[in-house]
């Protein structure tokens, strides 16, 4: 833990403690006032004129265009506050640039893992504390899934929205599949404890989505890293997984009627639409039909939410922002694929890229993110900004040194020279 703490302090000094504090404030969102940090971060980014001018590319233009169009269409809706319209129009490109800026200040490849892992953890703090305190007072056998945030005056939040904060924590088992040599046992133990508590919170919320994200990201990440490791590493990993599975099977009951599985167990047992993703496939089909019949959008009273980021954007704002967002989303996947090609530099870093982007997109496929939890979309923009800058910096090094000889890939320490802008 000391290594991680020292890296965060060193990074904060390079970027500025005030910027790191503002980002942490936004992620934790005390008293639902994270927009204040968003305004200050916006001012900070836009005074970096030279940096912005050097980072204007297709990805920035797309996210800026989406934000402006989405905000303009939001003006038509009388139920949306003016301040919310400003969030829509300003924050997505700002967080994309913020990710690029923080990556530009990163000196070592391994620091990327620490920074993005910390971002994911901070984003879950308020939800983790809120559901944990609820468990302490009411236990698991409580079928009211709406839980308020711990901050005073907070109204009960829908379980689906509360569970979204745990998305990146569901990636922790996937991230521990790779060898994190520089992190000691204490760090790994603490992160696994956080995951276990997060999973218990997911059980309390009865979130099938988060449970699916955990299982899918873990399975696909395992398939992702096996070809990139040596035979001996894979044998050790598979033996460890087998031993862990046996211990879990022996000591942890999986009876859906047990107390800690009571909420999610009830949903799984009483649900007759699990095969259709909770009835979402029907909504997706009707939404795709409406793209051609009603290109300017349709009313929610028709069949409710589409439960899909892109289709819900089309529902509320029409086909124009839908198309822009689709193009941006495809480019983010292509950028992630490019970043993964540098796995020889640091497998933990590219594994984090893979699992975080996979988890976020799984969330996008089943929830109306821009309407329900816009901050999640902003965190994704931040991560994609980080990835885009990573590609930019690594690309420059690749052109100069195709073998990437400037990196030490022995596994003990992965360092680079200072990245100059």
Give structural notes:
The chain contains 19 helices and two strands. The protein is mainly alpha-helical. A two-stranded antiparallel sheet has the order 1-2. It starts with a helix and ends in a 21-residue tail after the last helix.
Features:
globular, two-stranded antiparallel sheet, 19 helices, single chain, 421 residues, 2 strands, mainly alpha
Low-confidence stretches: 398-421
Q: Over all CA atoms, what is the radius of gyration?
A: 22 Å
Along the chain, the helix and strand elements come as HHHHHHHEEHHHHHHHHHHHH
> What is the beta-strand fraction?
under 5%
Query: Strand order across the biggest sheet?
Result: 1-2
Question: Briefly, what is this?
Answer:
With 421 residues, this protein is mostly helical. 69% of the residues lie in helices and 1% in strands.
Topology:
Elements: H1 2-15, H2 17-28, H3 34-46, H4 49-54, H5 58-74, H6 82-104, H7 109-138, E1 147-148, E2 156-157, H8 159-164, H9 172-175, H10 185-205, H11 208-225, H12 231-251, H13 262-270, H14 280-293, H15 309-317, H16 319-340, H17 347-366, H18 369-372, H19 374-400
Antiparallel strand pairs: 1-2
Helix pairs in contact: 1-2, 2-3, 2-7, 3-6, 5-6, 5-16, 6-19, 7-10, 10-13, 11-17, 14-15, 15-16, 16-17, 16-19
């Amino acid at each position: 833990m000391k290594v991680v703490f020292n890296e965060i302090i060193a990074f904060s000094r390079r970027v500025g403690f005030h910027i790191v504090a503002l980002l942490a404030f936004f992620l934790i969102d005390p008293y639902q006032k994270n927009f204040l940090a968003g305004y200050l971060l916006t001012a900070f980014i836009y005074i970096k004129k030279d940096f912005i001018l050097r980072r204007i590319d297709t990805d920035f233009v797309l996210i800026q265009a989406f934000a402006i169009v989405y905000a303009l269409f939001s003006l038509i809706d009388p139920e949306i506050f003016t301040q919310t319209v400003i969030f829509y129009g300003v924050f997505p490109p700002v967080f994309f640039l913020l990710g690029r800026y923080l990556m530009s200040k990163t000196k070592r490849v391994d620091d990327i893992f620490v920074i993005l892992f910390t971002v994911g953890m901070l984003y879950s703090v308020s939800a983790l504390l809120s559901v944990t305190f609820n468990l302490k007072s009411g236990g698991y056998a409580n079928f009211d899934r709406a839980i308020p945030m711990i901050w005073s005056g907070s109204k009960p939040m829908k379980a689906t929205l509360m569970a979204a904060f745990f998305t990146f924590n569901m990636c922790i088992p996937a991230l521990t599949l790779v060898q994190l040599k520089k992190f000691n046992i204490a760090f790994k133990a603490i992160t696994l404890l956080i995951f276990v508590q997060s999973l218990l919170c997911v059980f309390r919320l009865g979130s099938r989505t988060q449970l699916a994200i955990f299982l899918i990201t873990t399975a696909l990440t395992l398939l992702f890293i096996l070809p990139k490791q040596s035979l001996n590493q894979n044998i050790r990993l598979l033996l460890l997984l087998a031993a862990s599975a046996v211990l879990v099977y022996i000591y942890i009951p999986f009876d859906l009627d047990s107390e800690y599985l009571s909420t999610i167990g009830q949903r799984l047992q009483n649900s007759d639409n699990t095969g259709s993703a909770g009835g979402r496939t029907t909504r997706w089909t009707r939404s795709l039909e409406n793209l051609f019949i009603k290109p300017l959008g349709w009313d929610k009273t028709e069949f409710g939410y589409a439960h899909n980021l892109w289709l819900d954007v089309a529902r509320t704002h029409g086909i124009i922002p839908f198309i822009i967002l689709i193009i941006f989303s495809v480019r983010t996947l292509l950028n992630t694929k490019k970043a993964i090609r540098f796995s020889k530099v640091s497998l933990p870093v590219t594994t984090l890229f893979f699992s975080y982007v996979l988890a976020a997109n799984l969330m996008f496929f089943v929830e109306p993110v821009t309407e329900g939890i816009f901050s999640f979309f902003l965190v994704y923009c931040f991560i994609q900004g980080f990835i885009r800058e990573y590609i930019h910096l690594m690309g420059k090094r690749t052109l100069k040194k195709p073998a990437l000889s400037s990196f030490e890939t022995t596994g003990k320490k992965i360092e680079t020279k200072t990245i100059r802008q």
